[in-house]
Amino acid sequence: MSILAHNGSAVIAMSGKDCAAIACDLRFGVNLQTISTDFTKVYPLGPRLYVGFPGLATDNQTV
């Protein structure tokens, strides 16, 4: 099985007048099979800056 088949799932963000939110599910899987339910996809880059990485787990780990 190719490492390119290991996928995360959803990341969503919203912003308001004085607020912002970013959320994700914690699923990590291959096709329809769930491998883990504690896979982090949102990371802080600074005190007020966060980034979310849906999609390939290898891209997530590289960055």
Can you walk through the features of this model?
With 63 residues, this protein is mainly beta. Helix content is 10%, strand content 44%. The strands form three sheets. It has a three-stranded antiparallel β-sheet, with no helix packed on it. Strands 2-3 form a two-stranded antiparallel sheet. The longest helix has 6 residues, at 57-62.
Based on the model shown, name its key terms.
63 residues, 3-stranded antiparallel sheet, two-stranded antiparallel ribbon, mainly beta, 1 helix
Anisotropy-based shape: elongated
For the termini, the CA-CA separation is 23 Å
How much strand content do the residues show?
A: 35-45%
Total strands: the figure is 7
Oligomer: single chain
Strand order of the largest sheet: 1-4-5
Helix content range:
under 10%
Biggest pleated sheet: 3 strands, antiparallel
H/E series: EEEEEEEH
Uncertain segments:
none
Tally of separate domains: 1
Mean pLDDT: 82
- Integer-rounded radius of gyration: 13 Å
The assigned structural class equals mainly beta
Query: What is the number of helical segments per DSSP (H or I, 4+ residues)?
Result: 1
